[in-house]
Amino acid sequence: MGFSSALQSRAAHEALIVRQDAELRLMETMKRSIQMKAKCDKEYAISLTAVAQQGLKIDRADEMQGSLISKSWRSYMDELDHQAKQFKFNAEQLEVVCDKFTHLSQDKRKARKAYQEEHAKIAARLNHLTDEVVRKKSEYQKHLEGYKALRTRFEENYIKAPSRSGRKLDDVRDKYQKACRKLHLTHNEYVLSITEAIEVEKDFRNVLLPGLLEHQQSVQESFILLWRNILQEAAQYGDLTADKYKEIQKRIDTVIGNINPTEEYGEFTEKYKTSPTTPLLFQFDETLIQDIPGKLQSSTLTVDNLTVDWLRNRLQELEGAVRDCQEKQLKMIEHVNGGSPVANGSIISNGSNTSNGIQSNKDSLCRQSKDLNALRCQEKQKQKLVDMIKCALNEVGCEELPSGCDDDLTLEQNFIENGYNNEQQQRSNSTSSPGLGIMNELMRRGGVLTLLRGRGRHFKRKSTPQPATPMTRSRQGRFNKLQPRSQSLGSLSISLSTNRPLYEEEWFHGVLPREEVVRLLNNDGDFLVRETIRNEESQIVLSVCWNGHKHFIVQTTGEGNFRFEGPPFASIQELIMHQYHSELPVTVKSGAILRRPVCRERWELSNDDVVLLERIGRGNFGDVYKAKLKSTKLDVAVKTCRMTLPDEQKRKFLQEGRILKQYDHPNIVKLIGICVQKQPIMIVMELVLGGSLLTYLRKNSNGLTTRQQMGMCRDAAAGMRYLESKNCIHRDLAARNCLVDLEHSVKISDFGMSREEEEYIVSDGMKQIPVKWTAPEALNFGKYTSLCDVWSYGILMWEIFSKGDTPYSGMTNSRARERIDTGYRMPTPKSTPEEMYRLMLQCWAADAESRPHFDEIYNVVDALILRLDNSH
Ligand code: ADP
User: Fold this and answer.
1) Under DSSP, is residue 437 helix (H, G, I), strand (E, B) or coil?
2) Which residues form the active site (predicted)?
3) 577-594 as b/e: b if 16+ CB within 10 A
């Protein structure tokens, strides 16, 4: 429905006028707003230019040379300046738009006026005619009345006049005729004016008004079109998504995208690279104790009755702190593993897969691993102090005392004090070298061997000592498949040959570590004698199981005799014999009675049982020798532990022996025994003639066949399958830690880092981790399982097929770690069977659970070998 038919009424006409006025006002408002926007944009452009200029005031000095981030920033600011210019241009265009609005509103005003005038004009004619009709009608009425009156007068005169003539009648007739004529004329004029009015009204309604309205509609609509165009233009100049802005934004994105964290410091590090800083040296200032006689020794804790309580409290505190650190680490690891599964080296968080999400996950992963490392360091630092205090307390035998046994502590402190007094006595007598320990003192008097001999007396226990309980036997059996060299002496008489040096006594266990000693003493009354080195002095200790474990240091008297609380004896054997036969407590307060001597186990060899022949290798703790077992003439390999290493290291050294003791498999190097009777402590193993697999691969790279390489992989898998079945995590599987015999058979060796657990969380520092062989979850979270060994096995396979190449060659540990985390895997070594490389890749699956277990690996390799054999 258009204006022409719908808006004919007067009211509609008036509304149309009002509407046009409103439109004009709206147009005015828009114009003003756009003017304001143009102003705003101009000001914004000016501010943006200032921002860009401010941003460009960056340090152009050398410090940031080569920095991608600073380069990107500069380009970013340039783009911002472009953006400002674009804003300014658009603002100017908006001003042009405002001018257009001015013109449009002027034209619109004119059009409104024209409409109003035209409407008035056509309406005026109709009005005029209407008035005319009314006027004519009233004229008509007036003439009609005059006519009627004259007619009546004429009729009256006519009737009255006898002759129908006369002057008066003529006069009346004349007037009557004139009135009649006037009426008729008026009548005709009225008729004509009505007819004209009808015509004009018809035209007004059907032609003129619709024509005017139609025209007006088209005029107004054309204004709307122009109006819309102007608005579109205005919007266009304010469109921030316009191509120009998009291009700028794209360029900004690109320059920011050019920031590359891994390259940022390339030029900088290249310029400033220096060798790592030399460590700060913290050293005990020896001059402090130069003039102090007595027991204070540099870098050594002093344990005496004055400090023991303090040390124990400190130990408790530190142990608490260590536990605290461990708990925090576990929580952190649980949080990481529980919250978000690890895949491809990065954490996929719940639903967040935007690049920012991944980045923030990476950051949080980094942060967690940093926090974890900080906690590990803290724990390691505290643990070091714990170990130091424990070691010091251990050596005086008070660390293992159960609570409520402070009496024994006092006793042992008494011993220490006695010893100290004795020393002082000796010093004051000036008859012997001051400060020498028992062993040194014995040596001084003619050597350990002679002086530890007894006096030719045998002694037998009067009462029958308690037999070993099933528990004792089973415990011994558990750790040693080999039968004990001599049966437990529990039910036999204990014979102390006077001709035997102490270290040949079956119940003398040499420097057997304390953990092992404790393991051997199971029932009240079980005892053994051992040696401990404290402050580089040797001390002989009697260890007894009595309400826990107690360790008594044998005291030397000024005369060179040996005693506890009772009488002194000329030899340690006699002292022990006395304690055993008399059934008197070693000390009154401990109440400990000696009931059953515990003998060395089969694997506790004597140092003199082996003859070292030639050095065949160098290990972490000391040299490795080819040697001969005196008893069987068997060729063996002997790992020695440097005497100078601290006790803690010695304990670590023996860890390998403790683990190997339990295993028996053709692809695991066999333990024959450990020698802890005296220094250097040694581990005796089967001799594997080809030596280290890594050296072997490198030396024989030309002669090795694919079949032999696959055989090596199968051997290693067999050994590892066996270890996995025993819940042993090797943690350092690599070609350098495998041995090879002359038939190319591979044996897994070097169990220094192994742990017997299904899952092992590392709590000490990661310092010596073989990064390139270690699975990502172990590196990132310290979480070790057999599946980490599977990862290392993949690297071992790679070493075998690359004939001893270094993995990730040319990459530092941290670079390799970084690349692995982003999904990089080493390419296949030359001439590796495809299936073997596929197996390597499976072993290197980022998700540990997707890696094959050793059982499966063994079966795959075995099947491939079988297929190869059959094809020949
Ligand atoms: P560590 O564990 O102290 O680092 P290794 O086990 O690596 O010591 O031994 C060092 C080297 O000694 C080996 O690379 C190897 O050449 C040699 N070796 C070690 N054990 C044996 C053995 N049982 N038979 C033959 N050679 C061995």
Assistant:
1) coil
2) 732
3) bbbbeeebbbbebbebbb
Pick the CATH number of 3-238 from 3.40.50.150, 1.10.10.10, 1.20.1270.60, 3.20.19.10: 1.20.1270.60
Question: Any bridge partners for residue 531, and if so which?
Answer: 540
Rounded Cα gap, residues 572 and 452, in angstroms:
7
Length of the chain: 872
740: CA distance to ligand 1 center in Å? 11
623 annotated as ligand-binding: yes
Of the candidates 744, 737, 610, 750, which has an alpha carbon nearest to the alpha carbon of residue 672? 610
Q: Is 794 annotated as a binding residue?
A: no
Identical topology for domains 3-238 and 603-687: no
- Three-class DSSP category at 597: strand
Predicted confidence (pLDDT) per residue in 617-667, tens digit? 988 889 999 999 998 899 999 999 988 887 778 878 888 888 888 899 999
Closest Cα to atom 21 of ligand 1: 637
Q: Is the CB of 640 under 6 A from ligand 1?
A: no
Q: Give residue 691 CA to ligand 1 midpoint distance, Å.
A: 7
Residue 625 Cα, ligand 1 centroid: separation in angstroms?
9
Beta-bridge partner residues of 675: 605, 682
The pLDDT mean for the chain works out to: 81
CATH fit for domain 502-600, picks 3.30.1950.10, 3.30.70.20, 3.30.505.10, 1.10.10.10: 3.30.505.10
H/E stretch holding 550 reads: strand 549-553
Which atom of ligand 1 has the smallest separation from the CA of 617? Answer: 12
Kindly state if the Cβ of 709 falls inside 6 Å of ligand 1. Answer: no
Q: Find out whether 854 and 720 touch, Cβ atoms under 8 Å.
A: yes
Residue 280: strand, helix, or coil = coil
CATH architecture of 603-687: 2-Layer Sandwich (3.30)
Query: Known binder of ligand: residue 96?
Result: no
Q: Thinking of the domain 690-871, which architecture would CATH place it in?
A: Orthogonal Bundle (1.10)
* d(CA 298, ligand 1 centre) in Å: 35
90 is in an annotated binding site: no
Pocket test for ligand 1, best of 658, 683, 739 (most atoms within 8 A of CB): 739
Cα atoms in the Cβ-side hemisphere of radius 13 Å centred on 163: 5
Locate the domains of the chain by residue range.
Answer: 3-238, 502-600, 603-687, 690-871
The amino acid sitting at 754 is S
DSSP structure class, residue 775: -
